[in-house]
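Today's session is about reading a structure prediction critically. Students often jump straight to the picture, but the first step is always the sequence itself: look for stretches that repeat, for charged clusters, for runs of hydrophobic residues. Only then move on to the predicted structure, which in these notes is written as discrete structure tokens rather than atom positions. Here is the chain we will use throughout the hour.
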Amino acid sequence: MTEHLFNKILIANRGEIAVRVMRTAKALGIRTVAIYSDADASALHVQQADEAIALGGVTAAESYLDMHKVLDAARATGAEAIHPGYGFLSENAAFARACEDAGIAFIGPSAAAIEAMGDKASAKALLADSGVPLVPGYHGDEQSDERLSTEAERIGYPLLLKASAGGGGKGMRIVLSAATLHDDIAAARREARSAFGDDRLLIEKYLIRPRHVEVQVFMDSFGNGVYLFERDCSVQRRHQKVIEEAPAPGMTAALRQRMGEAALAVAQRIQYRGAGTVEFLLDANHEFFFMEMNTRLQVEHPVTEMITGVDLVYWQLRVAAGKGLPQDVSQQSLPINGHAIEIRLYAEDPDNHFLPAIGRLKLWQAPERSASVRLDSGVQQGDEVSPYYDPMLAKLIAHGRDRTEALHNLRTALAALQVDGVKTNRDFLLRLLSLEAFANAELSTDFIERNQHELTQPLPTHWELAALTELLLPTLASQPQQQAHDPWHADGFQSALPAQRVLRLESAAGDVLRARARANDQGWNLQLADQSVQLQGRLELKGQADDIRLLQLEARVNGQQQSLPLALSEHELLLFLPQGSQRFVRNRWLGEQAQDDHGGLTAPMAGQVLEVKVQPGEQVEAGQVLMIMEAMKMEHSIRAPQAALVQAVLYQAGDQVAEGTELLQLEITAEAEAENAAEADA
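Below is the predicted structure for this chain, in token form.
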């Protein structure tokens, strides 16, 4: 990629696609211009651009969708071309035409091609005699309830109502019988009108458990075109894609060729230029039907890039600059190397109908990139996720020699991704990727609904790992800067640690468990309810993110070794398990310790002693408040872990103490031990 294409381009988008286009443009020596709204003033794509132009406003309509502001920014900076990314103005024929009128190259298809495929009904009418298979349906202009009802009876149930003017699942209704048709038509029209300003509907036969398989096509301005094979995008929620992979599982060479040639026929019919995606429904009998064509680069294009080795943005820039496809490219020369799978990480709440979430990304630690793992992201730690734009944070893509290896690499990378501060679908995706049905490629567009029960099963609470983390925290202060590579060079027991500790653990869900740990030459023996667990491990400090410490826990639980990252703040512990994350409340942990028949209570965090509520020689009960501390402008009570005698009070009100400092010493007398035993039996 050394030839001259453009001096400067403007990227009329935001987030990960803007950053991704910049990466290729900069590799070609092209200067990049970012545009941004007031909500995105400190966004990653703004920081990485060579120049940035403020559009003002916070909503999409006030900024990224205002074509006049975008064109003014291009003129002001001398940009020769505009890359629209996907979404926003990428499929806006009026914008493509305005770029052409302004003498600015639009990095995408012609306005005529966008118009030809922009309306689903018109697109299908255009292809009626092309030989491209269409789903039986009605795409006519007559939109009365009576005509739609008549056509529904002709097509037969179940059927699908779809908005003619748009996609993304808006204005879409599955109709199972004539009994609900009237209400479904009204609801679909309202949603289509709200989303697209156009309430026209089309009707299609609803296929039972079809797969969503799409074909990547690319054409230059000289009529040369290729298809870069297919992607399976069947795993969806609310009719929007969640997981995509290439090539599609179970494809035969003959079916791949038939679908690829049909996709090219669609592109050739409208004299297409650039990157486009032709989407099909594929049934169990390997019959496929045209759905629509997306006249832009797709979100899921990285899986195609990973199996073909092609940089699709580079090809887009070449064609927009008036050049043809690279000379060495032909349909026969394009390879399929291995398998690639992509997941979309959204700021959303899977437990609340996948509604978008907002907030500050307090923690954002990406997995290590490699030849087999790619992360396309437009966010960074500390960013605010606003309510104004699409909630996608990033795309994580993994490659392997086959689907099994790609899936393993993706699960490993996703488990290593640490995010907090905003609700995301990270754990939901881990569950999806762990399903046997997904491993077996039992794919269809209702995959999530079919597996809803397994996807909503709560993980067992890993009390033992939370307890081990608390037990090992005092060792962090004494660790050397350079850790030994073998986490088992120490046995987890240090003579400076107390021989016995009593912990009060609380999950984020509000479940509470008291646990007693006794040190031995193998580490710790932990009594959890009626279960005895042998623990051994080490903690390593990996970094700091604001007030969050990033740690790595190397643990052995009853002889089983595991390694996992965790995030520790004053108030919370967040474990990033291979199956999903688990959160524990820290400011309610007691931090209790006992050594033989004597022991001390330590400060759970650095702070100031506000009040001492007991005196030496005083008998206290389990749970009694002994001392009150203040840290981070919040009060924290130090409570007795069990009935005991106060032997010594080591600090007084007003004293500053460090985390782990011994505050009081307790003695477990025979009377207190009997009281504790009675409480435990109860």
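Discussion point for the tutorial: The chain has five domains: 8-107, 136-205, 211-455, 463-585, 598-681.
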